[in-house]
Every structure is written in C-alpha cells, then in structure tokens.
Amino acid sequence: MHQETVPILAEDVFALLGDKQSVEILIASSAGLQSTSNGIGNQTKKQYYVRLKRLVDFGLIEKHQSIYKLTSFGSIVYENHLKTMDKIIPNYWQIKSIDVLKSRGDFPPEQKEKIMNEYIETTNMKGVLNATQLSSFSVVKKFDDLIVEVLKVMDNAEKEIYFATRYHDPYVSSKVFEKLSKGVTVHIMDGNPGQISVESRLAAIIRTPPNRETAEMVKKITKSPRFDLKRLPELPLSFMVVDGIQVVYDTVNFINPEQFTIAISKYDDTYTAKQFIDYFKTLSKDATTPKLLEEMRVRSNR
User: Fold this and answer.
1) Residues 166, 235: contact at Cβ < 8 Å?
2) What pLDDT is recorded for position 2?
3) Which of these CATH numbers, 3.40.50.2300, 2.60.40.10, 3.30.870.10, 3.30.470.20, describes 138-300?
4) pLDDT tens sequence across 263-293
5) Residue 141 gets which letter from DSSP?
C-alpha cells in the first residue's frame, strides 16, 4: 500500500511559524542541526522532538545523515518569510508613514512613487520591497501572468464587474460564472473573433451540454438581468473594472493591435475606474446585444 500524500495548506504552515520554538528549530536547521541535539531554548526534549517531527512532516526540513537541513521548500519559506520579516518589522512605523503619504490628495502619483523609491533606497529594505508593491499597482508583462492577475482581481468582486475583453481563457470564463452565481452583476463587452465569441460558446453549451448542471447554469445566466453581454468585434483594448475601484487594462501594440504587450493593474483608484466605466458605456453605443440573449429573455417573459 502507498502512503497517502497529505496536502500542505498555507494556514497550517503559518500556524507552525507562529510558534516561536518551531521557528528556532527552523533557523538552526538553516545552518545544519545535529540530530543528536537534546533541544533548543527552554523546551523539553519531548517538546523539541514533537516540533522537529512536525517540521519534517511539513517538508520544511529533512535529515541528511546525522544533520537536519532545510529542504528547498523550507529554504524558500526561511528566505522569503522569516528573513524578510526581520528586515520589515524594525521599519514598521516608517512603512506606516507611507500609508499617510498615499492618502494625501495634494501629491501627484509620480511624486509619491519617487518619494517611496527614495525611502526604500535609504533603508535595509532595498531588494525586499519596491515602490510598485507599496503604490497599489502592478505591471504585467506576460499574457499568462495577465490571466492570473485578472482572476485575482475578479475574485475580489462583491458587487459589479465591467469586463471588455479581446481574449478568451476558460479559467476566466469559469470565474465570471462563479461571480454571477454569487450575486455579482457582470457587464461584458466581447471583442473575441466570432468563432470563439461569448455568444458562440454559450450557444455551443446549450446545443451540446457537457452535463445537465452546466446546461441549467448557462440557461439561468442568459436569462439573468445581472448578466449584460454586448458584442463589439473591433474592441480597441481589453480592460476590467471591479466594484468601481480596481482596474486592469492592457496597452495596445500599434504595430500589431491584436497582440498583447503589457498590462497595468490598479488596486485602489476610483478615478481611473470611473474613466474606464464611462469608456465602457461609450463603447456600448456601437455594440450589439447577441441574438441568443434576446431570444432567451423573450422566452422567459412568455
């Protein structure tokens, strides 16, 4: 019989790292810990070996001959969590002052970023933090990373999503359905080619459903007043606004407008969010409502 692999959960690892004595063993293992050790600090021998076993079970440390050392997973946790916190905690109040700066309306965004960069350069947090992490926005340079970013921001939606898209990804589509099922209103401006348009994909599911549950879900969505679908084949760019505050948008490649180049995410920007919502509504004037939605809604009103 094979031993079952127990999944490692993030909350379990953080709970383990919340125990001071376990952290002491982990730190000692980074330099090599003799297996004959009788303990570290004021913990009893039994307490020490219980914690040691847990660290091994979680894959943070492993035994090489007679020495306990960090695993690759343990090294990542040690370098990116423990050592990083050692640098950040002493600067807590300085970091707190950045929140005050970010809330100031009399500073241009570029000036705020400059001040944050200068602050980071003069502290021991250089290489640990950057102004992008502190300024509530990020730059995405790969399409695969854009999908991850869209899913992350969309997952935050509690009320309303405006989504203008020239690309199709099955994970993003599933997330849209999930959010609709949880009561979120979704406005979609579909700029995909006809064969992979949202309407074509919905029609394919209704025509040949993979299972009854999916078919019922799609029928319910197409009849829902919270699902607003528009078609605009010449959509100039992709963007998404979540709850009127978070924005993700790509930039256009002027040589090849259909090709992804770079995207920007802003996590706290009501001004930019409003601009993109207004832009969505302007684009809607030239967009059409798919016949599928019109037909489904006419049937539901009979």
Assistant:
1) yes
2) 43
3) 3.30.870.10
4) 988 887 888 899 999 999 999 999 998 888 8
5) -
